[in-house]
Design goal:
about 60% helix, 3 strands, Arc Repressor Mutant, subunit A, three-stranded antiparallel beta sheet, globular, mainly alpha
Length: about 120
Amino acid sequence: MPERKDIPVTHVPLEELAILQTNICQALSDPKRILILYALNEHPRHVNDLAADLGLPQPTVSRHLRVLRQQSLVLTEREGVWTTYRLADRRIIQVLDTMQQVMFDGLKRKTAVFSNQIPA
């Protein structure tokens, strides 16, 4: 895929943005999937380890891992009867961290506006 740094966002095809939304954004739409990605950023794990570490039922973690795998955000590696899950691309953590910072900065701006509206 070509590098997008030099292309203005107004020139990105709508179809490409729709694919981005369908693949990545929907995969990130559940907080449990985000937790799984952060856990896998620490180190690769088996589904049972993820479930125990996150305090979630194993079937729930398996369902979320399936979505993340379908969207190529996690990769699997078979070890006998065990499957190890790992991040497909660590840049997804940078994306999540950036999104979190945007959220926090927006909350700070809202708080500042609200604080300035309260009479002293």
